[in-house]
């Protein structure tokens, strides 16, 4: 069934008729004739289809058109004014940043968003134009012929625009048409599929005619509240929203995990609730939430209930969610000052990789002792797990009492990973041991401990 939508593309209104789950990429290319965004992988991996939604880069192959209505869409065609190239495009020409052009439209819009990002939320800007920041911003854009050096040079050579020209929209937009939570639950009970950032759902595929409930339009699932005791995160919070919120400074293990979820185009769309509900044993935020002693507020036909996060994952890609139930909020105890956080993901490459092993550790120094030790790991079992025997070995120990290598051996002893196409069980358990040893060593060497 199709609906009428009015999209705002490159400052102009574009009325279209489409199925709600039709890909924004197809609407742009086939219905609106804007062929700048390209289809490469169709799975969010290459960035060739990147466009901006309210100034943030997204993979248009993963955005259903229903979630693009009411947002400002910028494609590469919208960068140049009439025949005047954007200074970024000029720099790509003069510095040799463009050759075949398959990747160039996606890189240009992502780089434009990077250069225009003036938000700081009281924290240091992450995307000022140095090489590391540019590399991080472009981690989701692949180029296979020019090479990255001329691309980096082109971006560095682009003059900054004054903030008023950046035309950035606010980060958290009011939902287009707020959907009451109770109505959403009724629709779910009647068989609708919940959709959030769609970074998993669009890859798995969803029946075009299937009824959906857009979780991004439910007010109860959005926003982050930072209390003295608890940090309360809406399940529809994207990883980018979280990273740019002051709460990220208090939950460093989760902040580091958020930074590792795909590239920038994935982080602007992927929600924390979606990461939990997908329940992949390799999900990056899951060990961090376990180590942070999070709890989940769920809401279903029988009303709300709260469960410890440790009870959420019940098997391979299985959760404690009951039919018609949603993850509404993620509540994390506010860690006291001096808490040690550590997160490490090991994959085949630095960005856009599925973890082979992912570990989070949270602990506190008390005098010369290690206390409140929480270590959680992913990709080493059918679900993310706490390493409770390793925690027990370390709890209350001083620097002479718990050797990092012993902690690593304990971690190895309490998991039974399985072989799969990505790694052998021996590799996973060896890496887990190395990472846990490194984390414990990092704790003893950290300022947290030495000043604790
Ligand atoms: C290119 C690419 C790279 C990726 N890299 C990583 C990575 O590095 N690390 C990682 O962990 N993941 C990665 N992912 C997976 C994905 O981005 C995350 O799992 C993401 O957090 C899913 O969130 P979403 O909002 O997009 O969920 P959606 O795709 O919208 O939904 C996923 C599932 O969760 C359900 N759901 C969503 N929200 C809720 C809720 N609040 N309550 C109940 N059910 C809900 C949906 O019905 C659906 O079944 C990657 C994906 C892609 C395409
Ligand atoms: S086509 Fe590759 S990310 Fe969309
Ligand atoms: S210029 Fe050819 S893939 Fe990037």
Q: Can you put this structure into words, describing what you see?
A:
With 452 residues, the chain is of the alpha+beta class. The protein folds into 3 domains: 3-165, Ubiquitin-like (UB roll); 181-207 and 220-333, Uridine Diphospho-n-acetylenolpyruvylglucosamine Reductase, domain 3 (2-Layer Sandwich); 340-450, CO dehydrogenase flavoprotein, C-terminal domain (Enolase-like, domain 1, 2-Layer Sandwich), CATH 3.30.390.50. It has 17 helices and 18 strands. A 5-stranded mixed sheet has the order 2-1-5-3-4, sandwiched between helices. Strands 8-9-14-10-11 form a 5-stranded antiparallel sheet, covered by helices on one side. Strands 15-16-17-18 form a 4-stranded antiparallel sheet. Strand 16 and strand 17 (369-378) form a beta hairpin. Helix 2 (87-94) packs across helix 5 (148-157), helix 10 (252-259) packs antiparallel against helix 13 (285-291) and helix 14 runs antiparallel to helix 15. The longest helix has 21 residues, at 425-445. It is globular, with a radius of gyration of 23 Å. The structure holds flavin-adenine dinucleotide and FE2/S2 (inorganic) cluster (2 copies). One FE2/S2 (inorganic) cluster (FES) binds at residues 98-104, 143-146.
């Amino acid at each position: 069934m199709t609906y009428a939508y009015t999209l705002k593309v490159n400052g102009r209104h574009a009325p279209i008729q489409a199925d709600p789950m039709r890909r924004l990429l197809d609407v742009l290319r086939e219905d609106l004739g804007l062929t700048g965004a390209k289809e490469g992988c169709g799975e969010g991996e290459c960035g060739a289809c990147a466009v901006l939604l309210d100034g943030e880069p997204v993979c248009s192959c993963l955005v259903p058109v229903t979630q693009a209505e009411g947002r400002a869409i910028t494609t590469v065609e919208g960068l140049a004014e009439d025949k005047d190239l954007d200074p970024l495009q000029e720099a790509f020409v003069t510095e040799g940043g463009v050759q075949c052009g398959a990747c160039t439209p996606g890189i240009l819009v992502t780089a434009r968003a990077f250069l225009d990002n003036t938000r700081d939320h009281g924290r240091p800007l992450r995307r000022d134009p140095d090489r590391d920041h540019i590399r991080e911003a472009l981690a989701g854009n692949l180029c296979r012929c020019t090479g990255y050096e001329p691309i980096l040079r082109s971006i560095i050579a682009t003059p900054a625009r004054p903030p008023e020209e950046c035309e950035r929209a606010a980060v958290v937009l009011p939902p287009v048409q707020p959907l009451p939570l109770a109505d959403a639950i009724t629709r779910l009970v009647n068989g609708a599929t919940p959709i959030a950032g769609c970074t998993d759902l669009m890859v798995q595929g969803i029946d075009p005619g299937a009824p959906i409930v857009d979780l991004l339009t439910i007010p109860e699932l959005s926003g982050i509240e930072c209390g003295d005791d608890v940090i309360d995160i809406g399940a529809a919070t994207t990883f980018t929203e979280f990273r740019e919120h002051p709460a990220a400074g208090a939950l460093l293990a989760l902040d580091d995990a958020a930074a590792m979820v795909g590239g920038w185009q994935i982080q602007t769309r992927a929600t924390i609730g979606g990461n939990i509900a997908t329940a992949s044993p390799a999900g990056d935020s899951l060990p961090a939430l376990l180590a942070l002693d999070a709890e989940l507020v769920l809401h279903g036909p029988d009303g709300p209930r709260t469960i410890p996060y440790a009870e959420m994952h019940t098997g391979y890609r299985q959760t404690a969610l009951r039919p018609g139930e949603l993850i509404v909020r993620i509540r994390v105890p506010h860690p006291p000052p001096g808490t040690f956080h550590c997160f490490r993901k090991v994959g085949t490459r630095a960005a856009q990789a599925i973890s082979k092993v992912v570990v989070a550790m949270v602990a506190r120094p008390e005098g010369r002792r290690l206390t409140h030790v929480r270590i959680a790991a992913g990709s080493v079992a059918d679900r993310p797990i706490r390493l409770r025997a390793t925690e027990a070995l370390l709890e209350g120990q001083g620097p002479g009492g718990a050797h990092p290598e012993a902690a690593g051996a304990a971690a190895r002893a309490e998991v039974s990973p399985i072989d799969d196409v990505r790694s052998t069980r021996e590799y996973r358990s060896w890496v887990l041991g190395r990472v846990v040893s490194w984390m414990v060593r990092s704790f003893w060497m950290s300022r947290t401990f030495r000043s604790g």
